[in-house]
Amino acid sequence: MAVKERVGLVVSNKMDKTVVVAIENRSPHPKYGKIVVQTKKYKAHDQENKCNEGDRVRIRETRPLSRTKRWEVAEILTTK
């Protein structure tokens, strides 16, 4: 099975070695056709605390690291 990867924006880095990444999903409404934006937040492991708020990052699914943390930062794409 392939490893899931997502690209999103860091919205919080206040925790130690953890960042919150917001992923936007843009899809048309099934009946009306208007593009609807849904945002989901994931907690991701950031080993070196390199990520800052506003950075665009790629996250990768991993084994459970805590009760809510199942992702890790694969790379920082752009910095703010």
UniProtKB/TrEMBL annotation:
One of the primary rRNA binding proteins, it binds specifically to the 5'-end of 16S ribosomal RNA. PANTHER family: 40S RIBOSOMAL PROTEIN S11 FAMILY MEMBER, SMALL RIBOSOMAL SUBUNIT PROTEIN US17M. GO terms for cellular component: ribosome. Belongs to the universal ribosomal protein uS17 family. This is Small ribosomal subunit protein uS17. Part of the 30S ribosomal subunit. It comes from the Bacteria. InterPro entries: NA-bd_OB-fold, Ribosomal_uS17, Ribosomal_uS17_bact/chlr, Ribosomal_uS17_CS. The gene is rpsQ. Signal peptide: none annotated. Keywords: Ribonucleoprotein, Ribosomal protein, RNA-binding, rRNA-binding.
